[in-house]
Structure formats: C-alpha cells, structure tokens
Amino acid sequence: MGYGVTTSFEPAFPAGTLIQGKWNNGQYRVERLLGEGANGRVYLVRKGKQHYALKSGFDPHDHQSEVNALKALSRSSSSFQQFMVDSDDFAYEGKDYPFYVMRYIRGKSLTDFLTENGRDWVHLVGLHLLRKLTELHAGGFVFGDLKAENMIISGYGDTELIDFGGLTAKGRSIKQFTEVYDRGFWNAGTRTADEAYDLFSFAVLLLSVTDRQRRLQGFKAILPQNRNVEALIEMLRDNELLAPAAPVLRKALLGQYAGSRQALADWRARSLAKRPVRKKPVSGGWIKVCFAASLLLFGATVYMFWP
Ligand SMILES: Nc1ncnc2c1ncn2[C@@H]1O[C@H](COP(=O)(O)OP(=O)(O)O)[C@@H](O)[C@H]1O
Ligand SMILES: [Mg+2]
C-alpha cells in the first residue's frame, strides 16, 4: 500500500525450482527472474512447452487484493480477459508463498526501448497507453500505479500494462501509487480513483521518460507544501520533444479532462499528426549535390574556355 519501496528479505526461487500449486496442482519450472518491484518477484516459468510469468507476492494481503483485482478485470470484457491463468500457494522451505501466473510479455522496459529506438517513439507509446487506459476506464477501473516500470514495450512500440497491484474500482481510494506520478503528491487532487487520476500519471510518465536533466527526481526533496503542478507545467514548457502533445498533457496535469476518451482523441489529433517530420531520405539530398556539382563543372568549363 502507498508509496513503494523495494526491500524484501524473502528468498528468491532459484532457476530449476519446481513451483507446485497447493490447491490447483499447476506445475511451473522456474527459468529465471524477470523482475522485482515493491510487492513481489516475477519469474519466467515453463509449464510444458508454454512460457508464463509467475508473480510471487511479498505480502499475502496485498497479493490477494491484486489477484482479486485481476479477477474482476478479467470479468469485464476486455483484452485483459486471459491475462491471469492461475493463482495458488506454494510451500517452500516450510513456508507458504502465494503466487499467480499470467501471460508472459516479451519486450523491453520503456526507458530501454526509447534509448534503443529513439525518443520520438514516445508519441506512439503514448497512443497505445491511452488506448489501454480508455479500455480499463470503460470497464469501471482505474490503473492507479502508472509508471515506466509497470509496462512492457514490444515490437513497434506496442505497449502492454503489467502490475495490476494499483488497479482500483472507480470511486474507491487508490490502492497503490508512486511518489512523483501521484497527483496527491503534487497537491493536484485527491487519491480517489477517477479517470483523471490516471491521466495525471500519464502526463508525468511522459515527462519522466523524456527528462534528460532528471529534474523530476529532484522534486522528491521538495517540502510537501511547496509541491505544485506549476513545476510540472514548467517542465512541459521546456520539453521540445513533447511540444506537439503539450496542450493534451497540460490539460491532463490540470485535471481538465473528465475522461480518457477525449484525451485519446486529442492525442491522435495532436501528438501523432504534428510530430516533427524527420529529415527527408538521402535521395533528395543527392539530387541537390549533383545539381551543385554540375553547376561547378559548368562554371569551371566556362572559365577554362572563356576567351
Ligand atoms: N507478465 C510479465 N511478463 C514479463 N515481465 C513481467 C511481467 N510482469 C512483471 N514483469 C517484470 O517484473 C517486474 C516486477 O513486476 P511487478 O508486477 O511490477 O512487481 P511489483 O508489483 O512488485 O512492482 C516488472 O517491472 C517487469 O520487469
Ligand atoms: Mg511494479
């Protein structure tokens, strides 16, 4: 609950461990650790020929609430339906560990993806994210803990949300959030789950992954009473890459969107349409070079044969 801190003294299951579910009898062989957050560790596992991701929670209560959220989510008809495939307990070295099994998503973290492919992909990733959020919101949920660590990017910027530990039914209190992405942290609104809560985090997320000077991290040290959304608006103003999307992000930061559907429509119209066009491929350049060369040659010829 609340701000996440990554500390756990729970043992990690080594590669080769056979995780056998106590109640459903599912058998999963651990291949490697995929990642770790404040609430648990996630392993790449195999069941027969199939790969899955298996999350083992540190706190049984928080883990159960995440499982419940995922169950509720899969009932709301959406692309998240087949996400969780099993949930059970595993006895290991005399102790029970709750776990759940989900679809394994192959890909990269957002920061790695942008470093490798170029930061202007952020506009397309933004579109995918807004689509996902709109879908969750239509099902009555708010994602809650939107941040770079909670998504995986694959292929051509396809974006999948992972970590539904913050998933909250609309109108309830946000269950799990992370400092700078949380509008409460910025004195910019309540921690009640509404669509605008996710849109605020969405805007901070985009600022964060394009924040070259790491200004956002510096804000953690500011006294709570001095944190305000103006600082974020200023960062947005100085951000050239996000300029085409700035009006949308500004509205999101100021809580001026009632819903994500409108934000998505605006994103389509602005961020993607007005993306700075990359320089023309070399072919156009070559024609100019050839033209200049021919002019020079012409000049030289004229000079040489001038009487
Ligand atoms: N379904 C998945 N497929 C691939 N990797 C995953 C999956 N779920 C989680 N991970 C990896 O494990 C990390 C921690 O998982 P996460 O659910 O975010 O834990 P926490 O709730 O503790 O933050 C993620 O940042 C990601 O790298
Ligand atoms: Mg996480």
TrEMBL record:
SMART domains linked: S_TKc
Gene field: yabT
Pfam families: Pkinase
Record key words, sorted: ATP-binding, Kinase, Membrane, Nucleotide-binding, Serine/threonine-protein kinase, Transferase, Transmembrane, Transmembrane helix
Residue intervals of the Protein kinase domain: 28-273
Gene Ontology molecular function, alphabetical: ATP binding; protein serine/threonine kinase activity
Signal peptide region: none
Record-linked InterPro entries: Prot_kinase_dom, Protein_kinase_ATP_BS
Catalytic activity: L-threonyl-[protein] + ATP = O-phospho-L-threonyl-[protein] + ADP + H(+); L-seryl-[protein] + ATP = O-phospho-L-seryl-[protein] + ADP + H(+)
The protein's name: non-specific serine/threonine protein kinase
Binding site for ATP: K55
Top EC class for this record: transferase
Chain ranges passing through the membrane: 285-306
Source organism, top-level taxon: Bacteria
Enzyme Commission no: 2.7.11.1
